[in-house]
Amino acid sequence: AKMREEQIKKTKTVCTYCGVGCSFTMWTKGRKILKVQPEVESPANGISTCIKGKFGWGFVNSEERLKYPLIRKNGKFVQASWDEAIDFAAKGLKKVGEKYGNESLMFIASSKGTNEESYLLQKMARQIFHNNNVDNSSRFCQAPATTGLWRTVGYGGDAGSIQDIYKSELVMIVGANTAESHPVLATRVKRAHKLNHQKLIVSDLRKNEMAERADIYLHPSPGTDIVLLSALSKYIIDQGWHDREFIEKRVNGFDEYYKSLEPFTLENASSITGIPEKQIIETAEMIHSVKSMCILWAMGITQHSAGSDESTAISNLLVLTGNYGRPGTGAYPLRGHNNVQGASDFGAMPTYLPGYQPIKDKEVIKKFEKAWHTELPTKPGIDNVSCIENIDNDKIKAMYVVGQEIASTGPDSNMIRDSLEKLDFLIVEDVFFSETAKYADVVLPATVSLEKEGTFTNTERRIQRIYQVMEPYEQTKPDWEIIQGIAKSLGYDWNYKHPSEIMDEAASLSPMFHGVSYERLEGFKSLQWPMKENGEGSEYLYEDRFNFPDGKARLYPLSYRPPLTVSEEYPLHLNNGRMLEHFHEGNETFKTEGIKEKVPDTFLEISEKLAAEYKIQTGDFVRVTSKWGSIKARALITERVSGNELYMPMNAASDDATVNLLTSYTRDPDSDTPAYKELPVKIEKLKKN
Ligand code: SF4
Question: Do 312 and 152 touch, CB atoms closer than 8 A?
Fold first, then answer.
């Protein structure tokens, strides 16, 4: 028994399946994962995890993992040594840069990679290639939320902690399927709702689990949330229920904002959203009846052509009612990837250096130029959505994509796949041979989180350490080593011996992270940015001041732009999102036995009304067609969707069934985030299954 004990290794790590950032001790024997054990001191989750965190690790030992580097020669991928592949990747970027200019290069950082890895990729783009064309997948999800918060309160992050949500008297969830997308966080809300008499309002197209539990469930017509939120604001002000004292002391722009609310009468709101006036009043009354409210939202809000405005409307409502700066209050855009927050925080963004320091700020540029011994670009870069049209315009000629399955997760995947084909040079660094890898010139095999050291930042701005649980699989390498290798091959010897040195550099250059070090993140210790002058992190934001020069919040006037909507030809609305068992496009969880068996593929949720109309039964194959593509999926008749609305998880077992073959390139002009949720389709029952 003692021998057996000795072979068991216990290592602290952080889950990579959502932004909650659950941490736990992983028990392993070699590459075998014996147990996932959350600890009392796990800051985000305590002793809980969900199915993905507990059982979702089978992919780590999947035979399908990339084992060695691949280089395309005469149209075919052949095995290469690391030296050869790194050299090939470096030369490829250099050659395209020399031929078309460095601005023809695009860098995409992984929102699943570590903070240190995002930092290095943006450093490569800026220091070596003098361009700001660097981004991460927050562009596909929460960039509009960040825009909304920057407009109103100043920090692009959750206002408080997951713990704080528990303390709130009222939780409002708008456009988020929390029970499935952020399960452990949802458990807290469920418990508080049950025990603490916390009230719960849910607004969503789909009657998801949280909606079932809610005290008030609102079902606005697709893409009309801004009307509902603004009508609530107007009604609250008209009743004199806004927090006058708070507004007087801490808020700018009230009058102009109130004026902008003029069109949002109950009558108008009700006719646009389809929600009865009485229910809007009931909701406003509930908001008025509590001392603290927080609002949680996700892609049901952000992935619209007015995603930034809708996010702004949420923050406006919170400012107006004085719901910022205290426990149990504030805005909670719930992050999807484990490190989508950190990838942005550490500078993988086209207009910000690490720590959200603007490239337009001369002092900031000077500081980084001194540290990196080079001149830095101040022209805003291209983001990872508009880079697609820039491939078509011949402006982007080469891309370095780290761990992003852009060929299946980008909007209008047919178009993206055609565009990738046109690139002169593509580096794909990933764990599996992804759909995107099919278009690559060189494929670099990366380790998974369990095989490396680093840090992740979860949805509540909490920086947490991950430790190496097991040796890298076959010949794989951590992304930070690969990026550093390419830099070296390009003549830049960064010479980081450990990710801690990368963090030290990032922390020294970004006030937000001053004082963050691996020493302070040891084990289950964590720090929430921004670091305060006293050296402590910030559990919640805006206690004394909002993040603007005068310290005041800003109410931001808005108007309503109708979404892309159904037509005679495409009469049905297809909503899409996550499911509990699978993660994103599914290239990890569909390779994990146990999970795959439980939910083998995607499905199309259809209302009883439509099922009757189209004579469809559960299990029938249905063809779903939009203006941009067509896929087939099995139908599932359910009460979760109603009327002419359909729902489909974005996770699919094969690349030819991804919902993004249907979605369009329509975008939110303020963040460039695709309007994935504005999707008119038609359906047809297939005769043969
Ligand atoms: Fe992982 Fe999120 Fe589940 Fe926690 S809630 S175990 S972070 S997927």
Answer: yes
Least confident of 257-271, 285-299, 329-343: 329-343
How many other CB atoms are there within 10 angstroms of residue 341's CB atom?
31
Instruction: Look at residue 683 and give its three-state secondary structure.
Output: strand
Residue nearest to atom 1 of ligand 1 (CA): 53
Does 323 contact ligand 1 (Cβ within 6 A)?
A: no
Task: Establish whether residue 17 lines the binding site of ligand 1, counting it when its CB lies within 6 angstroms of any ligand atom.
Answer: yes
- Identify the three-state secondary structure at position 320: helix
Give CA separation, 37 vs 49, 202, 222, 676, in Å. Answer: 9, 32, 41, 36
Q: Helix, strand, or coil here: 464? A: strand
pLDDT of residue 678: 86
The pTM score is 0.92
Could you tell me whether strands 425-430 and 442-445 are parallel, antiparallel, or unpaired per DSSP bridges? parallel
Report how far ligand 1's centroid is from the alpha carbon of 221 (Å).
Answer: 30
Tokens 């809300």 appear where? 189
DSSP annotation of 65 reads: B
- In angstroms, rounded to a whole number, what is the distance separating the alpha carbons of residues 430 and 108? 12
50 lines ligand 1 (CB under 6 A): yes
Alpha helices in 330-450 (DSSP H): 340-345, 362-372, 386-392, 406-409, 413-422
Ordered by where they begin, the domains of the chain are 2-61 (2.20.25.90), 70-138+338-528 (3.40.50.740), 143-334 (3.40.228.10), 572-685 (2.40.40.20)
Candidate of 24, 39, 50 to mutate for ligand 1, largest count of ligand atoms within 8 Å of Cβ: 50
Please give the Cα distance from 29 to 5 (Å, whole number). Answer: 10
pLDDT at 243 over 70: yes
DSSP conformation class of 532: P
Cβ atoms of residues 158 and 170 within 8 Å:
no
Ligand 1 pocket check: which of 52, 335, 457, 458 to mutate, most ligand atoms within 8 Å of Cβ?
52
Counting atoms of ligand 1 from 1, which one is nearest the CA of 20? 7
3 state DSSP class of 438: helix
* Residue among 45, 580, 592 whose CB has most ligand 1 atoms within 8 A, to mutate: 45
Q: Pocket of ligand 1, candidates 15, 458, 578: which has the most ligand atoms within 8 Å of its Cβ, to mutate?
A: 15
Show contacts of 145-148: CB within 8 Å, 24+ apart: 145/297, 145/301, 145/302, 145/307, 145/311, 145/331, 145/333, 146/333, 146/344, 146/671, 147/308, 147/311, 147/312, 147/670, 147/671, 148/308, 148/309, 148/310, 148/311, 148/312, 148/313, 148/314, 148/315, 148/331
Phi, psi of 319 (to 5 degrees): -65, -45
Distance CA 478, CA 444 (A): 10
Closest ligand 1 atom to 18 CA: 2
Assign 178 to helix, strand or coil: helix
Amino acid at 142: Q
How many Å lie between the centroid of ligand 1 and the Cα of residue 48?
A: 9
In this prediction, residues 34-50 reach a mean pLDDT of: 94
Q: How many CB atoms lie within 10 A of CB 258?
A: 17
Query: Averaged over 156-164, what is the pLDDT?
Result: 91
How much distance in Å is there from the Cα of 53 to the middle of ligand 1? 5
Distance from the alpha carbon of residue 673 to the mean position of ligand 1, in angstroms: 25
Strand partners, 27: 10, 35
List all residues 6 or more positions away from 305 whose beta carbon is below 8 Å from its beta carbon: 223, 561, 563, 564, 666, 667, 668, 669, 675, 678
Phi, psi of 491 (to 5 degrees): 95, 10
In a 3-state reduction of DSSP, which class is residue 123? Answer: helix
Mean pLDDT of the residues in the chain: 92
Residue 288, pLDDT > 90, answer: yes
User: What number does the ligand 1 atom closest to the CA of 17 have?
Assistant: 8
